[in-house]
Design brief:
Blueprint: E1 3-8, E2 13-19, E3 21-26, E4 29-33, E5 40-44, E6 47-53, E7 56-62, E8 65-70, E9 73-78, E10 81-83, H1 89-103, H2 109-130
Parallel strand pairs: 1-9
Antiparallel strand pairs: 1-2, 3-4, 3-6, 5-8, 6-7, 7-10, 8-9
Helix pairs in contact: 1-2
Length: 144
């Protein structure tokens, strides 16, 4: 059985589609959603949002946000969302390298936390992008 997934940012609606399963990364850990799930709301950690529709899997990078799960729907309001095919590997590698270099120098605690978060985000983006040509991740759900 499928349920309605709405994937939104402040700027636009990326996906409003019936799907079979969603895996996301909340601040308390990963969770999966099927039709009939117990309702809850959680903050999202930067991570991969994996969507299964039929036999196909679709991957998105989510930089953080909030997810509301209901028995017949899931709404994700994210700060930033990128489809796996849209992740620029060169820019992600450069950003990761810059964060690593900054962390190797003496910096304030606030700067250290900022660069650690940037490093985490870029590692997630690179992991997702490295799998984008995998047969189990053949494409993306059509956008409106």
């Amino acid at each position: 059985m499928s349920f309605m997934l709405s994937l939104l940012t402040q700027e636009r609606v990326l996906v409003t589609e019936e799907v079979d399963f969603v895996k996301a990364k909340g601040v308390d850990g990963e969770f999966g959603v099927l039709t009939g799930h117990t309702p809850f709301i959680t903050l999202l950690d930067p991570g991969e949002l994996v969507v299964r529709k039929g036999d196909a899997l679709y991957s998105y990078y989510v930089s953080g946000g909030v997810a509301e799960v209901l028995p017949k729907s899931m709404i994700v309001l994210a700060n930033t969302v990128e489809r796996a095919d849209d992740i620029n590997l060169e820019l992600a590698r450069t950003a990761r390298k810059n964060a690593e270099e900054a962390l190797s120098k003496p910096i304030s605690e606030i700067e250290r936390r900022t660069y650690l978060l940037e490093l985490k985000r870029e590692n997630v983006r690179l992991n997702i992008a490295s799998r984008r040509h995998s047969p189990s991740h053949p494409g993306q759900i059509a956008e409106d």
